[in-house]
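Sync notes, pocket subgroup
Present: LS, DG
LS reminded everyone that the earlier model was apo-only. Rerun requested with uridine-5'-diphosphate included. Inputs:
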Amino acid sequence: MCDRLLAEGHEVVGLDNFQTGQSRNIAHLANEPKFQFEECDVTGAIPDFGKFDGVLHYASLASPRDYLAFPLETLETGSTATRNMLAIAHANDARFLITSTSECYGDPLEHPQRETYWGNVNPVGPRSCYDESKRYAEALTMGWHRVKGVRTNIARIFNTYGPRMALHDGRVVPAFLDQALRGEPMTVFGDGTQTRSFCYVRDLVDGLYRLMLSDERYPVNLGNPAELTMLEFAERIQRLTGTKSQIVHKALPEDDPKRRRPDITKAKEVLGWEPKVPLEEGLRETVVYFQSVIDATPVATAG
Ligand code: UDP
């Protein structure tokens, strides 16, 4: 998104506490005069950087493995950080966009998921730190819009993948690619019949950029409706990489949603947006990236 904003001619200030983000992802912007970066936790005090036209609040742990390990930080980011960023937008009379999530639908009983579906979320289960803090963040965003007139947008992002993901963040795309490229067993959780729909990052960024410029105040799904089971996904990656890795089954995490696919009718109508990059093509670019990360990682030697 920083690359896209800079390409569109904007000046950008980036904030990240690097709890899961990686500084290597912005290293190429080090000498970019229109880009400024501050290592900072947005749940706390935020330095004054002057006047903003827009505030994009993307902060959160997003991988289930990460938010299960840091539930309190996840809750704080959805709540306190969202309040902090809304306050900055309000003080600047700036636009505000929050990246919410398909997890607002929980383990959905409606399929595919439209924005009008209220969801099926376990409020006290292990995933609730993420699901409920994002649902609260949406409610807070609507509150600041209704009471204080902040020009808000809410994106409900479905599974996204592409270069610059962290290799070991536990999510299924880096996990399967890492395992396939190293020739290690590919870990399908449960029987692998659960489904997901994967959107390439460049498509997602385009949807977010369009949403930021729109006057749509209610949530908009952004994702790729091409749905597949995790077993099919593992087999696709086997074929694509030509790996000899075999599929092994591991325990399904608690409350793992069984089906997930966005209905993107609203994004098409309101933003004129739909994903363009087919899974095969996006995965090929992602393989090149992960292979370069693996090649640059020193191999631990015994003794
Ligand atoms: N998954 C899997 N093997 C892995 C990691 C994940 O089978 O090594 C499954 C997981 O159970 C879920 C799907 O892949 O059904 C997507 O998981 P991910 O953690 O990427 O994100 P989620 O969609 O659950 O937020």
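DG: Residues 64, 159, 171-172, 175, 187-189, 194, 196, 230, 252-253, 256 surround uridine-5'-diphosphate (CB under 6 Å).
LS: The two ends are 43 Å apart (CA to CA).
Action: DG to write up.
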